[in-house]
């Protein structure tokens, strides 16, 4: 049997929940237009943060391993929801942006490819329900 994760999420008031995470806690809340106070993170957007974080950790680890020079690195995710309930992300674009004067584009692209195709478990989960588009942009100083 594989490793398991346990997260405990407790209703606080109105539309707000407190959720545990192995490294800390977070508050989830609905937006005011959905009956909440807007004081917490939105569940669907959290999924996008999880996707960026998972892949970002892979790429950062590979940047370190390959001893690549990168001044800055950013992941933008643009995700489209279905119109019908239950609404879920059916189209997801992940944009990797690398900044620096001495970018090794070939190796950085390899790092992205390894994360997307081999290492990122969250990416694999997203592939089960969404059409994924991956784009890498190099911003040379």
UniProtKB/TrEMBL annotation:
Gene3D superfamilies: 3.30.300.20. InterPro entries: KH_dom-like_a/b, OsmC/Ohr_fam, OsmC/Ohrsf. Pfam families: OsmC. This is Putative redox protein, regulator of disulfide bond formation. It comes from Galbibacter orientalis DSM 19592. The lineage of its organism: Bacteria, Pseudomonadati, Bacteroidota, Flavobacteriia, Flavobacteriales.
